[in-house]
Amino acid sequence: MRNSELLLSSRQELNRYTVMIQDYLELGKPRVVLVMLVCAAVGMALAVPGLPDPIIMLLGLSGIGLSAMGAAAFNHLLDQRLDKLMLRTSRRPLADGRIQAWQAALFASLLSACGLSLLWWSVNPLTAQLTAAALLGYAVIYTAFLKHATPQNITIGGLAGAAPPLLGWTAMSGQIAPDALLLVLIIFAWTPPHFWALALHKRDEYARAGVPMLPVTHGVDFTRLQIWLYGWLTVAATLLPFATGMSGLVYLFGAVLLNIRFMYWNWKVWRGQDPAAPLSAFWFSIRYILYLFAWLLIDHYLKGVL
Ligand code: HEM
Ligand SMILES: CC(C)=CCC/C(C)=C/CC/C(C)=C/COP(=O)(O)OP(=O)(O)O
Questions:
Q1: pLDDT tens digit string along 198-247?
Q2: In sequence order, what are the residues at sequence separation of 6 or more whose Cβ sits closer than 8 angstroms to the Cβ of residue 263?
Q3: CATH assignment of 1-175, given 1.10.357.140, 1.20.1440.20, 1.10.10.10, 3.90.180.10?
């Protein structure tokens, strides 16, 4: 083989590996997990006065992240047939046949086992148990049952996605505190407006695939109203950290600004006059939750200084 041919084939080999790594990474829904890890990190910071122990923080975030990615990979595995039916998900590695079911099962099991063991042995058993509950809640209860059974799938399944700040909190303090549950409540209330905005936009795909999401079972108008109402519930939940004295005026300032924008988009969705509003509301909901947790963190550290 000539040198140029050798170079070409090693480049092709490298490309194949890069694509394979990207496919496995995609199974773990890395962008969703990254936002969850931010929420977990804020839970860690708020659980203790001063700075959290960096070693526990690293071990805790690794364990939570690996477990959440494991749960997401199980979701890909169990949903592979459904994912083939929807345009948004049809190019996923399993749905598209780029990864085999046994490979995904092995990957999901390895990630979950590594994540949970790391938490059990190097953080604390309570965090490992709560993370295992969230993993099963999303991968099994939501994906295998609720998603196909009831339009309330995400209100109940949302509890698993809302767990990260509590997991961060227990990783650092070893106990479940009311303040940590407030943070869970915020994400729990936020999940319906977050997801139903996307479900409105993708209503026809869900209908064709036979998934009983709210806009499919109860119609578009009812879903718009629910987004508006759950939006207010989220606003109320976000005021609780200030009302209970857990966070101060800096947080309140940030939360009010974010809530104005959040309710502006939810209002646009509710009115139903702008066909682009649901997708814009969905994307804003992600920035909203990220920035809200950032404000909690800023407030926590400024409280010590101001
Ligand atoms: C059961 C609860 C939840 C449901 C049903 C849900 C649903 C969804 C769906 C269907 C997508 C689109 C995914 C895609 O196109 O690949 C999405 C995207 C996203 N979700 Fe959620 N979500 C939930 C909870 C959460 C939570 C708790 C967080 C973070 C704290 C979160 C953060 C995100 C982010 C960052 C994206 C964008 C991902 C990207 O850019 O590809 N979600 N969500
Ligand atoms: C241990 C722990 C913290 C677990 C949480 C796991 C986790 C990654 C939850 C993500 C929530 C999510 C993106 C739901 C969408 O699922 P879907 O199946 O309805 O959406 P899809 O159609 O895009 O797959």
A1: 999 999 999 999 999 999 999 999 999 999 999 999 999 999 999 999 99
A2: 231, 232, 235
A3: 1.10.357.140
pLDDT at residue 306, rounded to an integer: 67
Measured CA to CA, the distance from residue 64 to residue 168 in angstroms comes to 8
- Total residue count of the chain as it appears in this document: 306
Provide the Cα torsion 223, 224, 225, 226; round to 10°.
50
Closest protein CA for atom 24 of ligand 1:
161
Instruction: Please tell me the predicted confidence (pLDDT) of residue 259.
Output: 98
Distance from residue 20's CA to the centre of ligand 1 (Å): 23
265-281 pLDDT tens trace: 999 999 999 999 999 99
Given this model, what pLDDT does residue 304 score? 66
d(CA 80, CA 84): 6
The response to whether residue 157 sits with its C-beta less than 6 Å from ligand 1 reads yes
Does the CB atom of residue 134 touch ligand 2 within 6 A?
A: yes
Report pLDDT for 248.
96
Show me where the domains of the chain are located.
1-175, 177-306
| Residue 141 per-residue DSSP state | I
Containing 109, the helix (H) or strand (E) segment is helix 101-122
